[in-house]
Structure formats: C-alpha cells, structure tokens
Amino acid sequence: MIAEQNNETLSHISDQYARVFKDSTTQAAPRTFRSPGRINLIGEHTDYNHGFVLPASVDKAVYFVIAPREDDQVLLHAVDLNEDYQFSLNDLSKPSQTWAVYQLSIIEQIHKKGLKIKGFQAAFGGDVPLGAGLSSSAALECCLLFALNEVFELGLDRFEIVKMAQKAENEYVGVQCGIMDQFASTFGQEASVIRLDCRSLDYAYFPFPMEEYRLVLCDTQVKHSLADSAYNTRRQECEQGVATLREFDPNIASLRDVSPELVAQHRDKLGEAVYMRCKYITEEIKRVEEGCQDLVDGDLKSFGRKMYETHQGLQHEYLVSCPELDFLVDQTLSMPEVLGARMMGGGFGGCTINLVAVNHIEAFEAKMKDAYRQAFNIDLPCYKVRITEGTNEVM
Ligand code: GAF
C-alpha cells in the first residue's frame, strides 16, 4: 500500500489547527480528511459534452482538520496563506476573503438540499499546486463536503457529493465545469485510471502500469486570466454545434451522440470555428475508448501516441493551449524515452502530462528545465505523480 498522505504537510496542518483553535471552547476532537488533486490521461473537455474521460487521483491532496461547534459560526484557517475567515451559517453573502468562496459554495449546496449542519472550525491546506491544472478547487470542495457529511452524518453517498461539489463550482464560483474533476478526486483508486461515462456516470477502473514508465507533470507556471471565460465560450460553441446538428437529427442531445463523420458532413453548416470544436470533441471521445483498449492490450506506445493526438487537437482545433504548453510538448517529440505528452486540464497554462521511461526521468527533467529556462526564463517545476485512492478520512 502506497502511503497516500504527505505526512509532513498533514502534521503541519494539524499543528496549525491546534495553535489557531487552542482557546476554543469546542470539546469535540478534530478529524482529518483528504481529497487528492487529479490528472487526466485522455478525454479533455469531453465531460461537459457527456462523453468519456480517463482521469485518476494523485498523491497531492487537500486536507481539512475539522471539528463541529455548538453555535452557528464557521471559523476557517487557510494554513498555506496563514489567513483566517469567520462567518455565520445564516449569512452566506460573498466573502471578503476570496478563497472562502469555495467553502461558502459548499455550505450553500448543503442548505439547498435541505440538510442541516452546525457551525464548525477547520484548518485546511495541502500540496496540490495552485493553478497548475490539478484541480485544487475541486479537491477543496470535495474534501469539505465529504468531511461535513461525515462529521454531521448527512447521509450523502459519493455520487451526491460529486454532483453537489460540481454544482457549487457552477453556481457560486461561476465556472461551468463538467463533472470529471470532482469525480476523480472522490472515486480515485490506487494505481488505476477511471473511465467515466459523463452522461450515465457509469465508471470502470483500468490498471495503469507504472513499472517501466511514470507520469511526470511539467508545470509551465502560466495561468492566463482568459481561462475561465474561454472555458465557458468553448461550452457555448459545443452547444451551438449540437443545435445545428439537431436540425438533421433531433435525437442528438450532446456531442456524445455525434460521430466525427457526421461533423465532417455538416462542416459548411456548422461554420469553421464550431466545426473545429466539434471535430476535436467527437474524435477525443473515441480516443478515450481506444486508449482504454490500449491499456487492456498493454500497448503503452499506442496509448502515448493518442496523448500526442489529443494535444494536436487541443492546440489546433479546440484552441485552448498556449505557447508555453506547446513548447514543452514539442520538446519531447525528439525524446525516445517519452511515449506521450500533452497539455492537461482546462488549458491556457498549467501542466503538461508526460509518459516517461523510469530510467530516464532525471535526465528528462533536467533537459526540460534547461530548455524552458532558455526559452521563457522561467523555472520549470516537475512533479512525478503516483495514482492513489480518492477522498478518505485519514485515521
Ligand atoms: C476543467 C474542468 F473543471 C473539467 O470539468 C474539465 O472540463 C477540464 O477542465 C477539461 O477537460 O478542469
């Protein structure tokens, strides 16, 4: 069993909980919960098109050390920022502390469901790099909701937790994200990727072999502010594509129901921009299924080639990449030790994900760091990630 939690990070958060709440009258012993960040192997931007995705939860996580209170007050301590925020459960207006929007949005979802909680006090933090495309926000939302579910015995199952956390992000935070990140953080399984059908929420685990190749993330350190609004624009373009294609087949409910051939057939009617978006999505949905077959066949080379195809589509057709991401992927094209590489997540910055031969990882990182420094004058953090269990209570 791989040690899932980062013990150093965890003990720091526990220490900070003890320090911040040392004078609290709360009697209850604190409990600790963990939600990991996620990676995605293939299936980018397909979740909100009701297609397939292939994510996994990793050994970088958000932790909450939390105890219930007898009053209606919520006391939060953000360990990494050393900042506090306090509010009443009866006043969920937009917080002055911007990070508290995530916690407020979760409480709002609990209220909307007609469930009751009391106040609580919590210290939270973790080692999911922020803005790097590992979905730290989904991890934070899932962790708090899972923790409140346990502490106040709300009776939610994991599916409800995933859906409520996604709604929190959609309604309160304002990003029209799909369901992949919350699902991966909550349902992750050690050493396996999850093939998730984002329409039915049927899912299956596929063992991901890590003996000869490992997954390495290269963090551009770039987060373009365009990202959230462009994300919502891509969604609208996909919806526009569906509306146009429905004129030919009223049974089409989403791009999930459309083949790449049908998209090609109606290119003129779709218009070039929407055609490009639909082309990429319909091909990417197919790629997830074919990639799963590669895993079953033990053909990582073929799987790696699909990662490059995904990047091509995201770069040239879906238009969510950026020069820094393209540069990092291009660097790997001449490296035989890399089977596949592509940008990961929503885009416009964040990380590339690379499938690298175990014996060459040190050299790979050195080459990438060097090239990136020369091209952009930026230090390139690289993270070797392991696939771990999803959200849990740390005992
Ligand atoms: C972000 C979103 F939150 C996900 O739902 C998904 O759409 C992803 O971008 C792109 O695949 O992480």
Automatic annotation (TrEMBL):
It is an enzyme of class 2 (transferase). Its EC number is 2.7.1.6. One of its GO terms (molecular function) is metal ion binding. Keywords: ATP-binding, Carbohydrate metabolism, Cytoplasm, Galactose metabolism, Kinase, Magnesium, Metal-binding, Nucleotide-binding, Transferase. GO terms for biological process: galactose metabolic process. The keyword Metal-binding applies. One of its GO terms (cellular component) is cytosol. Residues 23-68 form the Galactokinase N-terminal domain. Residues 107-189 form the GHMP kinase N-terminal domain. Signal peptide: none annotated. Residues 294-356 form the GHMP kinase C-terminal domain. Belongs to the GHMP kinase family. GalK subfamily. This is Galactokinase. It comes from Dyadobacter jejuensis.
